[in-house]
Amino acid sequence: MRSDFDLANRSLEAPLLLTSALATRKSIATILAQQDSGDATPSLARTLSAFSLVCIGVGATIGAGIFVLTGTAAAQFAGPGLAFSFVLAGFASGLVCYAELAAMIPAPGSTYTYTYATLGSLAAWIIGWDLVLEFAMAAATVAVGWSGYAQSLAADFGLRLPALLAAAPGSGGIVNLPAAAITLGLTLLLMRGARDAALSNAILVALKIAIILAFVLVGALHVKPELWSPLVPPNQGSFGAFGWSGILRGAGVVFFAYIGFETVSCAVAETRDPQRDAPIGLIGALIVSTILYVAVAAVLTGLVPYQLLNVPDPIAKAVDALGLGGFSLIIKLGALVGLTTSCLTALYGQGRIFYAMARDRLLPEVFARLDPATRVPRFGQGTIGLLTAAVAAFVPIDILGELVSIGTLFAFILVCSAVLILRRTEPERARPFRVPGGSLLPVLGILGCLALMAGLPGDTWIRLMVWLSLGFAIFFGYGRRRLTAMPAEPA
């Protein structure tokens, strides 16, 4: 009887241990201690400033959105009131409470790390897997856009790639060679070290802002005020078809132009004073991006009737309206620079998330191995670059873009949830920056993201479910065994 009883106990013990392991949270104290542990795995180098974080955020945020989405939103939904849509979208992005968490938990991994501290290892793995959609797929999407602008600019000088090497299968080619090339080139830059990459990014961001400001200033001298009247076109009988509901619908469209600012939270572990610099970087990037978006929207709709802006290159169309032929080359250069910084920062963010997951043994340790000289996870960054280049070379941009959108919104929901949970479970922990309004803003952030996710097409949801199912399979086939083998965290 005793042996039968022991056997029964053992049969119950394994699932209980697994359940306990999956629900185990990693305390904030442990996360912070791990940052400067001085053990065999060195910590990331603290070389970035608050200004570097703002540049990373602006570099990640201002990319394809300002050169593409502005025309679609104006022509179909908001008209000259597009500037209001950008203000609403910027406010909605500010509801996502990255600044509070990044200052409180200045560690690599972004949403993955925050989820581990609040919901446990299984939820952390799933959000880490989801972040691949946000960062790696975003890098691939931007690389494909970069390829299009680069080929257009080259064509102005009579240079053209063979069609088969200029686009992915299903888009008229067999491989998008420029998209793969820019991804690999930026990966090599990131493998040199965070300081070199940050300096290059800052230079490119400065050039990008200068070009955007040039468009705003030159365009402002030629605007036709009558094109702004009425500022909010009357509604055409259905929700979102102009009117104030169109302003709201336009905000939902251009919201995705703000995707990327949260890359700042991936870099806080490499800043000199993360508790001060993280809020400055996140909020500063949002403010700068919103000001530039509003200015571009106002000038754009003052140069071209909004009905004519439903084109893939609305700013180029506005430049053509100015009659300044050489200026269009500058705008294309600005688009290239903007897309370059977006791709660079997305690849950077993905590398740091893989580093955090590998350090927690949910991925092979080789992804957490830092180069002794640069203190950069070179193997992980290189692997991510190769895989992202392959995706950019062979997957059409429309599929990539939808995956990025739903993956980002899912991550935003987890961030707002983490803020609410930590305020309840650790109310006494120091918060160098606290999102105002109590629980109201995090709740509004969750509801807003759910509303935007509900508006995405069904096949995007199916792809998300397939992606998450693959993530579950990897976790239960690999990650959980390594997780249950980890030593228990001290109380």
UniProtKB/TrEMBL annotation:
<dbReference type="GO" id="GO:0016020">
    <property type="term" value="C:membrane"/>
</dbReference>
<feature type="transmembrane region" description="Helical">
    <location>
        <begin position="435"/>
        <end position="454"/>
    </location>
</feature>
<feature type="transmembrane region" description="Helical">
    <location>
        <begin position="379"/>
        <end position="397"/>
    </location>
</feature>
<feature type="transmembrane region" description="Helical">
    <location>
        <begin position="241"/>
        <end position="261"/>
    </location>
</feature>
<feature type="transmembrane region" description="Helical">
    <location>
        <begin position="403"/>
        <end position="423"/>
    </location>
</feature>
<dbReference type="InterPro" id="IPR002293">
    <property type="entry name" value="AA/rel_permease1"/>
</dbReference>
<feature type="transmembrane region" description="Helical">
    <location>
        <begin position="81"/>
        <end position="101"/>
    </location>
</feature>
<feature type="transmembrane region" description="Helical">
    <location>
        <begin position="324"/>
        <end position="349"/>
    </location>
</feature>
<feature type="transmembrane region" description="Helical">
    <location>
        <begin position="460"/>
        <end position="478"/>
    </location>
</feature>
<keyword id="KW-0812">Transmembrane</keyword>
<feature type="transmembrane region" description="Helical">
    <location>
        <begin position="166"/>
        <end position="190"/>
    </location>
</feature>
<keyword id="KW-0472">Membrane</keyword>
<feature type="transmembrane region" description="Helical">
    <location>
        <begin position="202"/>
        <end position="221"/>
    </location>
</feature>
<dbReference type="Pfam" id="PF13520">
    <property type="entry name" value="AA_permease_2"/>
</dbReference>
<keyword id="KW-0813">Transport</keyword>
<feature type="transmembrane region" description="Helical">
    <location>
        <begin position="122"/>
        <end position="146"/>
    </location>
</feature>
<protein>
    <submittedName>
        <fullName>Amino acid transporter</fullName>
    </submittedName>
</protein>
<keyword id="KW-1133">Transmembrane helix</keyword>
<feature type="transmembrane region" description="Helical">
    <location>
        <begin position="282"/>
        <end position="304"/>
    </location>
</feature>
<feature type="transmembrane region" description="Helical">
    <location>
        <begin position="50"/>
        <end position="75"/>
    </location>
</feature>
<dbReference type="GO" id="GO:0015171">
    <property type="term" value="F:amino acid transmembrane transporter activity"/>
</dbReference>
